[in-house]
Amino acid sequence: MKNIAYIGIGSMAEAIISGIIARGGVNPTQIRVANKSNQERLAYVQQQYGVHGYTSLEAALTNADVVFLAVKPKDVLAALSAARPYLTENMLLISVAAGVNLANLENIIDKKMAIVRAMPNTSAAVGLSATALSANSLIGTGQLQLAIDLFSSIGTVSVVEENKLNAVTGLSGSGPAYIYYVVEAMEKSAQELGLDSDTAKQLIIQTIQGAAEMLNQSPKTPATLRKEVTSPGGTTEAGLKVLDDYQVKSAFISCIEEATKQAKRMGDEISKDINKEISSLNF
Ligand SMILES: NC(=O)C1=CN([C@@H]2O[C@H](COP(=O)(O)OP(=O)(O)OC[C@H]3O[C@@H](n4cnc5c(N)ncnc54)[C@H](OP(=O)(O)O)[C@@H]3O)[C@@H](O)[C@H]2O)C=CC1
Ligand SMILES: O=C(O)[C@@H]1CCC=N1
């Protein structure tokens, strides 16, 4: 059994932890989590999942086999610099920070460590994350397999080239939020049309699950499946015409493009901060 440490215990770290524990992949007592200062949050995760919580990175990281970096991108430089003294070359570092590339992580750590840059999503909490990952050149076959196994316990895993990870972030990292956004609209509309909220919730969830399962099992394209729902002169045609009039499809495409660009911008910010830090050390 591997010892797993987390730097940062926010929504994404919690989703991964709850997923891997629920699926029996890891014993909670082998998980140590650290955040910066939020004691209430630490108390909650300790009580909820039986993991050990610390504000000391030394206490969380010593003897870890795998270290997850799960702080906001803007906090990566500070958190990883603070963690550096406790990181050793036999550890595997897994970063889920959006936009932060492997070269940036290597520059901050400045040690010969195996690093995985991964982009999961919060559906990890129910074992249904769509994760894509990429590794640096120092990773051994066993460590890559370990990362794949950990993420496989919370959903699907795709190994991709690193230059695809910002697009993955815009598509599936942020993706659950797009679906929730649509559901918010469906719920509001159901309420306005006089459906009770429990009934509406069940209808909406089953509709989404059913459509997802059709996409999964059917050889037909999404466009064909859509056309099969759309009777000529019927209700769907009338509804979809409104979506087309509002250019909703283009809006979704722009949404994913903009999220992808934002991942790059966040990564560029980190590069700037790292370069500033390096040049200040050279003076
Ligand atoms: N949320 C999502 O859907 C997804 C998020 N991600 C990525 O996951 C990462 C975390 O996001 P999310 O969980 O939403 O963020 P949250 O803001 O929920 O959590 C961030 C955590 O980082 C901790 N932290 C901040 N600075 C430090 C530090 N110097 N040392 C130790 N811990 C620190 C915070 O501690 P404290 O509270 O004490 O300040 C907090 O526990 C981000 O990089 C994001 O890009 C990736 C995929 C999906
Ligand atoms: O919104 C964000 O920046 C993070 C990355 C992907 C999902 N949430």
Automatic annotation (TrEMBL):
<comment type="function">
    <text>Catalyzes the reduction of 1-pyrroline-5-carboxylate (PCA) to L-proline.</text>
</comment>
<comment type="similarity">
    <text>Belongs to the pyrroline-5-carboxylate reductase family.</text>
</comment>
<dbReference type="Pfam" id="PF14748">
    <property type="entry name" value="P5CR_dimer"/>
</dbReference>
<keyword id="KW-0028">Amino-acid biosynthesis</keyword>
<protein>
    <recommendedName>
        <fullName>Pyrroline-5-carboxylate reductase</fullName>
        <ecNumber>1.5.1.2</ecNumber>
    </recommendedName>
</protein>
<dbReference type="InterPro" id="IPR029036">
    <property type="entry name" value="P5CR_dimer"/>
</dbReference>
<dbReference type="Pfam" id="PF03807">
    <property type="entry name" value="F420_oxidored"/>
</dbReference>
<feature type="domain" description="Pyrroline-5-carboxylate reductase dimerisation">
    <location>
        <begin position="162"/>
        <end position="266"/>
    </location>
</feature>
<feature type="domain" description="Pyrroline-5-carboxylate reductase catalytic N-terminal">
    <location>
        <begin position="4"/>
        <end position="99"/>
    </location>
</feature>
<dbReference type="InterPro" id="IPR008927">
    <property type="entry name" value="6-PGluconate_DH-like_C_sf"/>
</dbReference>
<keyword id="KW-0560">Oxidoreductase</keyword>
<dbReference type="InterPro" id="IPR036291">
    <property type="entry name" value="NAD(P)-bd_dom_sf"/>
</dbReference>
<dbReference type="InterPro" id="IPR028939">
    <property type="entry name" value="P5C_Rdtase_cat_N"/>
</dbReference>
<keyword id="KW-0521">NADP</keyword>
<dbReference type="InterPro" id="IPR053790">
    <property type="entry name" value="P5CR-like_CS"/>
</dbReference>
<dbReference type="GO" id="GO:0004735">
    <property type="term" value="F:pyrroline-5-carboxylate reductase activity"/>
</dbReference>
<keyword id="KW-0641">Proline biosynthesis</keyword>
<dbReference type="InterPro" id="IPR000304">
    <property type="entry name" value="Pyrroline-COOH_reductase"/>
</dbReference>
<keyword id="KW-0963">Cytoplasm</keyword>
<comment type="pathway">
    <text>Amino-acid biosynthesis; L-proline biosynthesis; L-proline from L-glutamate 5-semialdehyde: step 1/1.</text>
</comment>
